[in-house]
Amino acid sequence: MKQDSFENKMDELEKIVEKLEGGNLSLDESLKLFERGVKLSADGMKLLDEGEAKVQKLSVLAQAERNEPFGGLKAGEEEDF
Question: H-type helices in the chain, by residue range?
Answer without folding.
Answer: 6-22, 27-67
